Amino acid sequence: MQIKNICCIGAGYVGGPTMAVIALKCPDIKVTVVDLNPQRIAAWNGPLENLPIYEPGLAEVVDKARGRNLFFSTEVDKAIEEAEMIFMAVNTPTKTEGEGAGMAADLGYIESCAKTIAEVSKTSKIVVEKSTVPIRTAEKIKEILDKHGNGLHFEILSNPEFLAEGTAIQDLLEPDRVLIGGDETESGQESVSALVDIYANWIPKDKILTTNVWSSELSKLAANAMLAQRVSSINSLSALCEKTGANIDELSKAIGMDHRIGPYFLKASVGFGGSCFQKDILNLVYLCKFYGLDEVAKYWNQVVKINNYQKDRFAQKIIDHFGGYLNGKRIAILGWAFKANTNDSRESPAIFVAEKLFKAGAILEIYDPMVSMESVFRDIDFYWDALKTEDLKAQISVLDFESTLDLSYDATAILTEWEAFKSLDFSKTVVFDGRGVVAKSSYSIGKG
């Protein structure tokens, strides 16, 4: 089975970059990315410097493929009709109400997407789960497709993304592995082979792993949980280092040199953020509780608790430095994105640290090279408790340019490790960073 036309539903952090790379590497395949948000699609079709997502290398990939075999559109029905293979890359947020609220994944967008595919399709399709979903989601998708699909045949594949924001394009071009799960029927394996053939245009076949659907679905949650566990583990040890006089950087290096452990995700920080780790761990906790594995659920829930503790501890350290009194203190927040080399600030530790400092009376000046003023105040509206934006602006300012930092603040909190911050002169301010450092003179951020 040879695929000539792909549709991807969802033009966000997963769908946009993934489809751009597939289009680049498979020039004979037409790739159409669709989304119901016309502003987002307009941005994808607009100037390269204003793409809705910032990722190093993304603009160059889009530039090479857009208009040739890569298209962005709001014409969802047309793209579905034309495609032989449809990727679902829609959001799967944590449920806010009903059973599993606060932990389980909300599959509303997935279910709506499946229903649209079923009702619009006039020919059989291969439907690929690209979104992060809980195990057994493929069953629900299959039920919806069979119920609304007018007797057509649909194959469901699981192809989770393992992208790190900030290195997404490199992760797509040279991945550690590509995982494809499918049914062990003849038609299921034919569909798996069709997707393998697409990736094989640029990825060695020994890096393309095929499994059953359930193993593939669970692998994404498990991988994120294991990575987040390492972050919480090293952050819990950073608290002990501060009490005992040990150096967390030295500890991390010593631990990371053990080949059984390795050096990755052992850099102490303010805590993990982003759209995946906490959401996926809480989903895993819910699944464990659902299947009666209460002790396993408690184990993974502790990873989230340590992350929340680290954010709170970091902010409290600044408050304690000033004797518990921040009224009138000018504090710079350097970094708002949840990590460097992305403009994504979802669940960023900076949001929660800034809120605690603000409520303690601090005057905040916030700067991030890729996150706009509008995004910062949108995050404040969404995440902070019962505060009105118009009441904040006398006490909070968001700077547009690095040159507007006067670096003579009462304190500076470095919350995103942007390369640009490493050359700044912090000699006139007290500096706090994720390693637990409090520096009162000339300061340089250490590289991890």
Describe the fold and architecture.
The protein is α/β, with parallel strands linked by helices. Mean pLDDT is 91; it is low at 441-448. The chain folds into two domains: 5-211, 3-Layer(aba) Sandwich (Rossmann fold); 246-439, 3-Layer(aba) Sandwich (Rossmann fold), CATH 3.40.50.720. Helix 12 packs across helix 13 (349-359). 44% of the residues are buried. The strands form three sheets. The protein has a six-stranded parallel sheet with strand order 3-2-1-4-5-6, with helices on both faces. A six-stranded mixed sheet has the order 11-10-9-12-13-14, covered by helices on one side. The protein has a two-stranded parallel sheet with strand order 7-8. It has 15 helices and 14 strands. The radius of gyration is 23 Å and the shape is globular.
In CATH, the topology of the largest domain is named Rossmann fold
The major β-sheet equals: 6 strands, parallel
Strand content: 5-15%
Terminal CA distance reads 46 Å
The low-confidence parts are: 441-448
SSE layout and pairing:
Blueprint: E1 5-9, H1 15-25, E2 30-34, H2 38-45, H3 58-65, E3 70-73, H4 76-82, E4 85-88, H5 108-120, E5 125-129, H6 137-148, E6 154-158, H7 168-173, E7 178-181, H8 186-199, E8 208-211, H9 213-244, H10 248-256, H11 277-290, H12 294-321, E9 330-334, H13 349-359, E10 363-367, H14 373-383, H15 389-392, E11 396-399, E12 411-414, E13 430-432, E14 438-439
